[in-house]
Amino acid sequence: MNLSDEELDRYARHIVLPQVGGLGQRRLKEARVAVVGAGGIGSAVVPALAGAGIGRLTIIDCDVVEIGNLHRQPMFSESDAGKGKAQLAASFVQRLNHFVDAVAIDQRIEPDNARQLLEGHDLVVDGSDNFATRLAVSDACVELGALLVSAAAVQFQGQVGLFRSKPCYRCYVGDAFDADDCDTCAELGVLGALTATVGGFAALLGINALLGIGPDQSGQVHLFDGEKLVWRAIRIPADPACKGCGSA
Fold first, then answer.
1. Residue spans of alpha helices (H) in the chain
2. Average pLDDT over residues 179-189
3. What is the pLDDT of residue 246?
4. Each residue of 29-67: pLDDT tens digit?
């Protein structure tokens, strides 16, 4: 898949990087990435991936914009209140980079549709706000053999992890959170700049994984303390009894 003259100009500052080059930029153009959640984290992930030249960007979110979202979701404006996030985010992508094929899916991911919605993607970036969705996404990625970047942010704490088939996200959190009853930032609060920090890191982690830049980061979670402004990484062991990847 070749790059046009316009694309060569657009991505020139990528292409001069030895870690990317023309070959890497073509890989990004060929990549298919699904972003689950167009909220605070998605509002950093989507522009970063669209700007990077991902060939196809699927945005999955069944929510609508609320005024209380705007402090951390800069893809949207006050006039967007009440409108669907997925289509608004896809329109944002098309305005930013017409070379990206942006697809909006206004559905909630559940265990019975996750595989169908995520099939055909090389990478899934999950910024959803509940464990039930994250675990459904993780299980589907294990089945499909897709790379998964899972990211979350609440109050001043953020976490981002890259998962290949084994260990998986379920190995990290266990089975206790399959129910959709966890606390969210609506109850606990979240600093707007934190979601941008976590989302930007998630996009970088995903791009590096697609291009093979740096050491393999899979199987570990990066934790960010937004008060102390410190990152630390923890290694996640595979759980032999994990119902997501135990037999993978």
1. 5-10, 12-15, 21-30, 42-52, 85-96, 114-118, 131-144, 169-173, 185-188, 192-211
2. 62
3. 84
4. 999 999 999 999 999 999 999 999 999 999 999 999 999
How far apart, in whole angstroms, are the C-alpha atoms of residue 22 and residue 30? Answer: 12
Which residues, in sequence order, are bridge partners of residue 239? none
127 within 8 A of 41, measured Cβ to Cβ: yes
Distance CA 137, CA 218 (A): 16
d(C-alpha 4, C-alpha 64), whole Å: 36
Return d(Cα 193, Cα 227) in angstroms, integer: 12
Q: What is the dihedral of CA 171, 172, 178, 181, to 10 degrees?
A: 170
pTM tops 0.85, yes or no: yes
Domain ranges of the chain: 1-27, 31-235
What residue has token string 């999955």? Answer: 60
Spatial CB neighbours of 242, under 8 Å, sequence gap ≥ 6: 167, 168, 170, 171
Assign 12 to helix, strand or coil: helix
Question: Is residue 39 a contact partner of residue 61, using CB atoms and an 8 Å limit?
Answer: yes
CA angle 61, 175, 244 (to 5 degrees): 75
* Residue 204: count of CB within 10 angstroms of its CB: 17
Tell me what the mean pLDDT of segment 117-144 comes to: 96
Fold of 31-235: Rossmann fold (3.40.50)
Q: Which residue has the tokens 């030249």?
A: 53
Q: Inform me whether the pLDDT recorded for 209 exceeds 90.
A: yes
Q: Residue 128 is which amino acid?
A: S
As a whole number of angstroms, the distance between CA 70 and CA 188 comes to 17
